[in-house]
Amino acid sequence: MEELFIKEEIEKLRKKIEYHNKLYYEKASPEISDYEYDMLVKRLQELEKKYPQFAIKESPLKKVGSDISGKGKIIPHKVRMYSLDNAYSLQEVKEFLVKISQKINKFPEVSLEHKIDGFSINLYYENGLLIYATTRGDGFEGEEVTENVKTIASIPRKIFFKNPIEVRGEIFMPIQEFRRINSEREEKGESIFANPRNAAAGTIKLKDSKIVAKRKLDSVIYAVGLFQNNEIRTQKELLKFLKENGFKTNPYTKFTDKFEEIEEYCNYWEKHRSELEVDIDGIVIKINDFKLQNELGYTTKSPKWAIAYKFKAEEKRTKLLDVKFQVGRTGAVTPVAILKPVFISGSTVSRATLHNEDEIKRLDLHLGDEVILIKSGEIIPKIIGVDLSKRKPEFPKVQFPKNCPVCGSKLQKDENGVITYCNNINCPAQIQAKIQHFASREAVDIDGLGEALIKQLLENKIIAKIEDIYQIDYEKVRALDRQAEKSVENLKRSIENSKKQKFHKVLFGLGIRYVGAKTSKILTQHFSNIDEMINAEPEDFLKIDEIGEKIAYSLYNFFRNEESLRTIRKLQEAGVNFSSEKEEIKNKLNGAKFLVTGTLSHYKRNEIKELIEQNGGNVISAVSKNLDYLIVGENPGSKLEKAKKLGTVKIISEDEFLEMIGMSAKK
User: Fold this and answer.
1) In a 10 Å sphere around its CB, with 0-12 CB exposed, 13-18 middle and 19+ buried, how is residue 121 labelled?
2) Is 64's pLDDT higher than 60?
């Protein structure tokens, strides 16, 4: 019976570890700390060692977590990438080094390097040129991220070393940049990154390298994979070689063969890490001599010649004064703890996000509680517990609101039961973003109605809801700052033209959760008008290919919301189009696959895409072997070079495309 319970525990641990591996490596959104994760691994190691009959080849203990998302090209590493074993005390570090000392009859010389809390990268050079960059992946192969890596100023595209070489290190987001991005995301009502590591990992896999460039990622290089150079015999010599080749290395690296100096170095940086511009979560201790490294070798997932000493998170106690509930631009309601100010990890903290209702319940928070606070990733304040011994009977329990704290509408949880939303289309906390979305080029395309003007119109009470766009008092608009007569006339004309937009664009403009531009088009091909959608049941939506439960119930709930229905009726009264015209699909392009790059002369990007689909072609998202035609405008991006390299893609101009479908350029 005992063995049955042990087997069940082992299986549960394996599932938990695999789950947290996926969150950490692939999705860059971990739910638990490194320490909590390592404790799960440690427990599984103990059980598999004690009960070998339950050990399996596929155990997560025998493989490195994978960051492969499946969205990019996969390239095998020429030399495997490993992960480090962790130590949470200097005693563990000492035991690790003493074990090596006993083999070589002396205390080994080691390098002490900051453990950057970033994202592992593999850079491959040939003839001194950067050929490609990949993520660590599963250790054996990684996902290509070359174009994004080229935006990082500290990574050279050319080096003087001409032999093939794999260069390895960490990509990170500087703390100031991390704070700037989070501040912007918070203003927009978007979810903030938990720490710089998540931000760097999320950024490096973005499809748009222009966004990556704006986020100012940085790097520290500290290792090689494939490398043929017998002159480099130590980590010290390797770091010098890397620096000479233009790579950024850690300026605080120390070499020593005395444990007292290791202890001093680790303790110093554990206290002073908040003074750095990069987030570090520990110290990496490596054997300096490469010959000894080779003799010591590897386990199934880690080198036997290196270990990471992980810093402990600093904890402070303070009083919970209040909990405020903020409504973001997407309608997500986020609880924020208001704390008695306390100094922790280099700054004074008076607020901490509580994420969602489940977190409040998990912590069982009461106003007046003494809470235990850490900084997640040394950046984001996080409440990890409550000192129940200090709680008084009169402390009121924190309750998540049933209604929106801004507009009073009834709140709803998402389909996963995690995030709570205000679904009022005209909630004041969301309205600016909602109007911007409705007026955007991808939606009803109101030229001139941008962020600045919308803000002015709302502040001056000229509009308050989406439908008010069609009742604007243009005399009041003329009286606003920086509004010339011509601009107002153009705005008036553009608003009038927007009434004739296609149904799928209007539907997209309503901002229904999970309903993007493509889904809107699919829906309007199955429903001829908005009333058919309003009267539909979830099952009616689910009959459509590509519509899953998440979208079906989002649509159903949206059309059951009184504010949503009122807005739709007001827009209908204003003359906005809510009916489909059955488009005749011509088959001139016979299913050929197209992609557009650069600025076009006659048509907007979305208009060209529509013409492709109307004439029986398909638009794909990236250059690949499947691409038939690349339409090239002015200032094309990297897609043009990629298409040329493939050699199978036909490169055409906008005019040549229009000729293919028998159309003239728009005047």
Assistant:
1) buried
2) no
User: Looking at residues 466-473, what average pLDDT do you find?
Assistant: 94
62: pLDDT confidence band, cut at 50, 70 and 90? Answer: low
- Quick: pLDDT tens for 188-220: 666 677 778 888 888 888 878 888 888 899 999
As annotated, the active-site residues are 115
Give 528's DSSP letter.
Answer: S
Last residue of a domain, one of 420, 445, 476: 420
Per-residue pLDDT tens digits for 69-98: 556 688 999 999 998 988 989 999 999 999
| Of 181-195, 247-261, 313-327, 436-450, the least confident | 181-195
pLDDT higher than 90, residue 527: yes
Which CATH number goes with the domain that contains 347? 2.40.50.140
Query: Residue 162 is part of a domain; what is its CATH number?
Result: 3.30.470.30
Closest residue by Cα to residue 161 from 243, 234, 77? 243
Q: How many structural domains are present in the chain? A: 5
In the block, residue with structure tokens 């250059």: 623
Q: Do strands 316-327 and 370-376 pair parallel, antiparallel, or not at all (unpaired)? A: antiparallel
Whether 288 and 403 map to the same domain: the answer is: no
Please give the residue range of the domain that contains residue 641: 593-660
- Verify that 409 and 446 share a domain, yes or no: no
Examine residue 6 and state whether it is found in any structural domain, yes or no. yes
Among 310, 328, 359, identify where a domain stops: 310
Q: Is the same domain home to 383 and 319? A: yes
**128: which residues sit within 8 A by CB, 6+ positions away?**
158, 159, 160, 161, 162
DSSP assignment of 377-427? TTTEEEEEEE-GGG--TTPPBP---SB-TTT-PBEEE-TTS--EEE--TT-
Pairing status of strand 280-287 against strand 254-256: unpaired
Structural domain contains residue 71: no
pLDDT score of 222: 96
